[in-house]
């Protein structure tokens, strides 16, 4: 089950990183300021290419942290708070990975990139879970995505994939717990995405849901399952990128459509959005269909399988909601900062990035033999007969959406989530900090009292 | 070579400065710099020659009666630290404070001599004497010049707290003498396990209490933020970078020589105080509004980090703390010097008012970012590597809670350094006027940047890999 | 070994410690430091006592002298203590000029 290093898994990750460079450059070409962004992008690409080549956990952490830091710098161009939040979280996750790796290394023999001992496993799972948005560890996801530039979001789905890469190296045996976690992720992500009203938040929870599919597949521990996991992750990066780019450019144009009449740009964004949505949902003919089929066929008919089918239904529903909110609803686009709106209005010229992202999706979808990774699960390449069920499912959910649209409050509601709790929890620490400040109030005798108390404690402990 | 030269050269310079001022007033700068270069070279030579171990008793007395001086690999590393740190601080303070007051330079060289004395002391009473000279010169350095009431108040509080600690230290030393009739550290090492446990408890308590005050560990750290923030910037750099390391060396030496075989409970207790320092230091630093006070609380936290390594009491832990000592010295000295220049430019007190520096002093902002990233633990800089070594040491001993505190400290220190950097990089309505160009200080900052980068490369060079392996084999103490 | 000497030394040290913790006048703080130092030095000097010993002065006339080593420490430590006290008193004068009071609890300019 183990892929030797450097091997096809590393090759896929490096290929994806290099491939993403061009769409990101094209997508963000409007807002480059003096080449600083290009430098940061090169740093990101460099560390993202070195990370899959690392043969120890220590090396992996170094490159992954460098990539996250450069991504945080990119996000900081438009939203400093989200950049800081993302940075702190990634540093924390990297630190916990380091601790887990330290539990298994000695100075001369660093822990190799592979399965770890029982003692260190919780640390690895928590750290990689923070990167991949496991449930309860995903609280950074919605807030980071809200105002970040689209190119940063493209790269952030890549860093989530790096977390998946880490999990792939970590778990080579079947693991029931991780499978259930993946199923919960998929369902919860779909549910929350359905309950949001802001497009970026919908996309954030959608990332969580899709990663749930990937985690479930890799937890099967079988070779077809792991192959399906990495294939799904790659397809997810491409289709999610397409969704990001098309919705990014659409919003000001919807407003501009009524004002400036830029109908052509609007239709172009809508076309690419539908493309990305079809791939994500698993419409036959796209790579997403193959990926979903690979994932589902690597599981047997257990509750997890039905949970993923339900999540697939939810995917279609929230994608319809996203399309409605972005392209058809009357009032949207206010939450975008003025600066972004203006740059986008002026710059929408050639959708090169979206074409670059969309082409592989169709190419892989139409000729599955070119994706060598699918050779691990040969039966899905032959089986065109079960086309009927997915199409029926999609049509049914489309109809369901049109029904649900009538419910008042459905379109504009927003459900609270763990991230609110996380922010509230910060306020719990306030009395402690105040007490600490009071201790340092400059009273000399109070400091003597603390020192005296500590001395008494020291003497007592030594005499035991 | 006799280790006494490391102490003698700065001491002689200190005594010659008043004479030079009286007779050759114009030549005072030349005398000071000549003396500084001699002392620095002397320190390097003693470190180099003492690497494999020197032990000397002054005046031809026997080891029980005479003043013993000894150097080994650990002392040699710390001697290199002082020989680098003091000249840098001297250059910067010569530019900042001028040549009007010769008394400052006398105290500076006395401080240098006594710090080197702590590092080469071979018997515990000599250690105490050098400790006291070190402390008195530190009190005077903090309060220079006495025109600012903050400096005087900080210095007074430092004096009272420091003397309290010194008295407990002296009490511990006298109880040791009472129990063993010996003062030489090499001889005491063998006699300590034979001391009856009640006496050992009292000795351990007194020595630990005294050294905790001197090091600036929670719960005896209350003097440190006041002292390090009220001093002049080059003196703050010296205090935080070099002068807090000498008590840490003494703690390391006494702990490993005396308490490791005799009173193993010493080290878990040290671990507890180190973790507490880490937490309190970082949590207080993030609440500060003045930049020098924030950097001083960060020093408290870094001292806690170094104590974590010492408390692991293994060769890996000591290597980790040693590496972190050097990292902290290069980064914190640079941070204080840059912060001092910015404060002088803007003349404000709050961090959020210190804006607009990216355009006017870009090199210094970049240097600040490098030092802050190194201390916060960003790969691949030296702070990250020392953090990794500390994590290895803690994991080896099974100390998981301190390791988690260490990781939390990384995140919190990233937060407050980013706050400062964010303020520096935000645009300001009025550009900060350059009061002085501070060329020499900028040169010192450039040297520290280069030193920081060399430190980051050091663990990968074959020579230092061999050094690490000899440390791991335990051939470290006489 | 004279227990009375040791006891006195420790009691003086404890009185100094008590004064440091519970008295608010800055001068009393300095007196407390001097008291504590005196207590420790008394302890050190009494450590060197040998029964039926004469003071360690030459010529010895063949008798046993008390241990002179602790006495040399005491001399050094007295010098150190004297410089500490002098410095502290100088600081108190400066602090009084700024604050107008010698109450330790009022001297809290640096806080937080």
Secondary-structure map:
The complex is a heterotrimer of chains A (464), B (478) and C (112).
Chain A (H helix, E strand, L loop, with lengths): L7 H20 L8 H15 L6 H19 L4 H23 L18 H12 L8 H6 L3 H21 L5 H19 L4 H20 L4 H37 L3 H19 L5 H12 L4 H26 L9 H10 L4 H15 L12 H4 L5 H17 L13 H11 L1 H10 L4 H20 L1
Helix pairs in contact in A: 1-2, 1-7, 1-15, 2-3, 3-4, 3-7, 4-5, 5-7, 7-9, 7-10, 8-9, 8-13, 9-10, 9-12, 9-13, 10-11, 10-12, 10-14, 10-15, 11-12, 11-13, 11-15, 12-15, 13-17
Chain B lengths: L3 H20 L4 H22 L4 E4 L10 E4 L1 H25 L4 H19 L3 H19 L6 H32 L4 H7 L5 H19 L7 H8 L2 H11 L1 H18 L3 H20 L5 H22 L2 H32 L10 H4 L1 H15 L5 H16 L2 H26 L13 H19 L4 H11 L6
Antiparallel strand pairs in B: 1-2
Helix pairs in contact in B: 1-2, 1-4, 2-3, 2-4, 3-4, 3-10, 3-14, 4-5, 4-11, 5-6, 5-10, 6-8, 6-9, 8-11, 9-10, 9-13, 10-14, 12-13, 12-18, 13-14, 13-17, 13-18, 14-16, 14-17, 14-19, 16-18, 16-19, 17-18
Chain C lengths: L2 H20 L3 H22 L20 H32 L13
Commentary on this structure:
The complex is a heterotrimer of chains A (464), B (478) and C (112). By secondary structure, chain A is mainly alpha-helical. Chain A has helices at 8-27, 36-50, 57-75, 80-102, 121-132, 141-146, 150-170, 176-194, 199-218, 223-259, 263-281, 287-298, 303-328, 338-347, 352-366, 379-382, 388-404, 418-428, 430-439, 444-463. Chain A contains 20 helices and no strands. The longest helix of chain A is centred in the middle third of the chain and has 37 residues, at 223-259. Chain A is globular, with a radius of gyration of 24 Å. By secondary structure, chain B is mostly helical. Chain B has 20 helices and two strands. A two-stranded antiparallel ribbon of chain B has the order 1-2. In chain C, 66% of the residues lie in helices and 0% in strands. In chain C, helix 1 (3-22) runs antiparallel to helix 2 (26-47) and helix 2 (26-47) runs antiparallel to helix 3 (68-99). The longest helix of chain C has 32 residues, at 68-99. The mean pLDDT of chain C is 90. At the A-C interface, helix 20 of A face helix 1 of C.
């Amino acid at each position: 089950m183990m892929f030797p290093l450097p091997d096809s898994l590393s090759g896929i990750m490096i290929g994806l990183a290099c491939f993403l460079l061009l769409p990101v450059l094209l997508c963000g070409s409007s807002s480059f300021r003096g080449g600083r962004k290009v430098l940061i992008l090169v740093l990101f690409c460099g560390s993202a290419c070195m990370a899959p080549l690392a043969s120890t956990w220590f090396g992996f952490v170094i490159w992954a942290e460098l990539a996250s830091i450069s991504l945080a710098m990119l996000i900081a161009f438009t939203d400093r708070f989200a950049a800081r939040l993302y940075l702190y979280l990634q540093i924390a996750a990297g630190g916990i990975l380091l601790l887990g790796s330290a539990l298994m290394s000695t100075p001369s023999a660093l822990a190799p990139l592979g399965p770890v001992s029982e003692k260190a496993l919780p640390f690895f799972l928590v750290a990689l879970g923070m990167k991949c948005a496991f449930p309860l560890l995903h609280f950074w996801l919605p807030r980071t995505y809200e105002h970040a530039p689209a190119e940063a979001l493209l790269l952030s789905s890549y860093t989530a994939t790096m977390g998946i890469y880490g999990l792939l190296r970590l778990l080579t045996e079947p693991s029931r717990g991780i499978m259930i976690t993946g199923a919960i992720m998929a369902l919860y992500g779909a549910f929350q995405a359905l309950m949001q009203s802001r497009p970026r938040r919908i996309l954030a929870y959608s990332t969580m849901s899709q990663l749930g599919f990937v985690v479930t597949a890799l937890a099967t521990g079988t070779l077809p399952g792991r192959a399906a996991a990495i294939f799904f992750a790659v397809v997810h990066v491409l289709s999610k990128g397409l969704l990001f780019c098309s919705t990014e450019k659409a919003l000001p144009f919807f407003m501009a459509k009524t004002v400036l009449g830029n109908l052509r740009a609007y239709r172009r964004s809508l076309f690419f959005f539908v493309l990305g949505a079809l791939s994500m949902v698993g419409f036959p003919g796209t790579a997403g269909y193959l990926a979903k089929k690979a994932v589902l066929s690597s599981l047997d008919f257990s509750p997890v399988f039905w949970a993923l089918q339900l999540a697939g239904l939810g995917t279609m529903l929230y994608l319809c909601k996203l399309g409605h909110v972005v392209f058809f609803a009357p009032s949207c686009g206010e939450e975008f900062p003025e600066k972004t709106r203006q740059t986008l209005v002026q710059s929408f010229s050639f959708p090169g990035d979206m074409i670059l992202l969309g082409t592989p999706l169709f190419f892989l979808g139409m000729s599955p033999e070119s994706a060598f990774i699918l050779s691990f699960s040969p039966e899905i390449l032959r089986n065109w007969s079960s086309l009927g069920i997915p199409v029926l499912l999609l049509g049914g959910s489309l109809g369901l959406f049109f029904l649900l649209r009538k419910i008042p409050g459905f379109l504009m509601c927003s459900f609270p989530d763990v991230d609110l709790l996380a922010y509230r929890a910060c306020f719990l620490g306030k009395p402690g900090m105040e007490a600490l400040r009071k201790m340092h109030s400059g009273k000399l005798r109070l400091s003597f009292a603390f020192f005296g108390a500590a001395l008494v404690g020291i003497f007592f402990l030594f005499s035991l | 070579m006799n280790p006494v030269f490391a102490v003698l050269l700065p001491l002689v310079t200190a005594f010659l400065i008043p004479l030079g001022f009286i007779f050759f007033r114009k030549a005072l700068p030349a005398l000071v710099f000549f003396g500084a270069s001699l002392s620095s070279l002397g320190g390097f030579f003693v470190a180099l020659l003492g690497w494999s171990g020197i032990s000397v008793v002054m005046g031809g007395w026997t080891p029980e009666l005479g003043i013993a001086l000894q150097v080994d690999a650990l002392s040699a590393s710390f001697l290199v630290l002082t020989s680098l740190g003091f000249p840098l601080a001297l250059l910067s303070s010569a530019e900042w404070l001028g040549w009007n007051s010769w008394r400052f330079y006398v105290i500076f060289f006395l401080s240098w001599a006594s710090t080197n004395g702590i590092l080469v002391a071979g018997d515990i009473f000599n250690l105490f004497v050098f400790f006291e000279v070190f402390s008195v010169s530190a009190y005077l350095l903090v309060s220079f010049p006495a025109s600012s009431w903050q400096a005087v108040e900080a210095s007074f509080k430092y004096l009272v707290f420091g003397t309290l600690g010194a008295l407990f230290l002296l009490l511990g030393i006298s109880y040791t003498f009472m129990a063993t009739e010996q003062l030489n550290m090499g001889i005491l090492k063998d006699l300590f396990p034979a001391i009856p446990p009640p006496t050992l408890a009292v000795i351990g308590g007194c020595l630990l209490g005294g050294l905790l005050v001197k090091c600036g560990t929670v719960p005896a750290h209350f003097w440190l933020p006041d002292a390090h923030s009220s001093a002049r910037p080059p003196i703050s750099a010296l205090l935080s970078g070099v002068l807090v390391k000498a008590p840490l060396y003494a703690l390391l030496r006494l702990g490993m020589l005396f308490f490791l075989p005799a009173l193993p409970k010493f080290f878990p207790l040290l671990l507890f105080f180190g973790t507490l320092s880490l937490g309190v230091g970082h949590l207080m630093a993030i609440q500060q509004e003045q930049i020098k006070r924030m950097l001083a609380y960060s020093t408290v936290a870094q001292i806690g980090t170094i104590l974590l390594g010492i408390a692991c009491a293994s060769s890996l832990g000591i290597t980790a703390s040693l590496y972190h000592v050097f990292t902290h010295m290069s980064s914190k000295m640079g941070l204080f010097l840059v912060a001092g220049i910015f404060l002088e430019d803007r003349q404000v007190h709050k961090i959020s008012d210190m804006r607009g520096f990216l355009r006017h002093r870009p090199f210094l902002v970049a240097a600040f970012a490098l030092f802050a990233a190194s201390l916060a633990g960003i790969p691949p800089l030296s702070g990250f590597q020392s953090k990794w070594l500390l994590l290895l040491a803690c994991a080896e001993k099974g100390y998981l809670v301190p390791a988690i505190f260490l990781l939390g400290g990384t995140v919190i220190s990233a937060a407050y350094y980013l706050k400062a950097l964010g303020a520096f990089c935000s645009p300001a309505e009025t550009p900060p006027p350059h009061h002085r160009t501070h060329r020499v200080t900028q040169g010192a900052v450039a040297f520290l940047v280069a030193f920081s980068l060399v430190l980051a490369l050091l663990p990968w060079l074959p020579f230092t890999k061999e050094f690490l392996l000899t440390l791991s084999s335990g051939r470290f103490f006489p | 070994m004279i227990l009375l000497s040791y006891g006195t030394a420790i009691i003086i040290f404890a009185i100094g410690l008590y004064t440091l913790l519970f008295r608010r006048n800055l001068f009393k703080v300095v007196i407390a430091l001097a008291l504590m130092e005196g207590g420790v030095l008394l302890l050190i000097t009494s450590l060197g006592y040998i029964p039926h010993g004469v003071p360690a002065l030459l010529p010895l006339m063949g008798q046993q002298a008390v241990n002179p080593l602790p006495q040399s420490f005491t001399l050094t430590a007295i010098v150190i203590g004297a410089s500490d006290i002098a410095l502290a008193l100088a600081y108190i004068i400066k602090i009084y000029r700024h604050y107008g009071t010698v109450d330790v609890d009022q001297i809290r300019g640096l806080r937080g």
